[in-house]
Amino acid sequence: MTVSIDLSALRDTHWHQHVLRFVLGGAVTLAAGLLAKHFGAVFGGLFLAFPAIFPASATLIAKRERQKKQRKGLQGAVRARRAAALDAAGTTLGAVGLMCFAGIVWQELPAHATALVLSMAALSWLVISTLFWRLRKRHSWRRPWKPPPPPISSGK
Amino acid sequence: MQLLFRFLIGGTVVLLFALLGDVVRPKSFAGIFGAAPSVALATLALTVHADGRAYAATEARSMIVGAGALLIYTWISSRTMWNLRASVAAVTLTGLILWLVLAVGGWLILLQGAA
Q: Which of A11, A15, A109, B11 could be stapled to A22 by a disulfide with Cβ–Cβ 3.0 to 4.6 Å?
């Protein structure tokens, strides 16, 4: 499966959802700084991995999928939930990359230029997350196909 | 003024990564942008400027624990949404409490007392 860009998805998003993400992102960054100031860097650092994007994105994906199905006259609740579950599975793989990002910054920042370390760590996050995503795809392709269960007979 | 600057930078970086996640396909790949280092990139650059590299590196070490908590939170959310008839908003929002418990628990077990 190839990775692609679909700009039409931007048209489906209402401007207030962008505002919500901006405010949430700003608030979390502000809170992370304030927590580090009051409780120290060790506690404040936890909040650098706060899920600022995932809850809003998963909810938005579910809403879009439900609306798509409803336009076709279907309820779409199951499809919406499963689309959000797929998004969450991807975020789990991204979290592996995020741990590597943090590890690289922790080890390399004291000795190297900030811009270089942050760029390399961000690139590592993307490469490692993509690698895990590809491994997961390959693994799921190798899973033996199970036929669907037979339909339940109507009795007698 | 510095707080406003932090808010604006954080909001912008988080929004950019969220938009990237919106336009990338397939959905399972787009999901990785939900764990993008958006807050970290915004915060660490400002922290280095204000408090120095050693302080920012200490924050990054704690971030490993926060990212571990994120991994568990999203894995449980994914399984719950796939298998149960639970509302997406309810799962993801109540999961934030789980993230907090895991992150603070990890801090108490692994990091408390660390310099």
A: B11
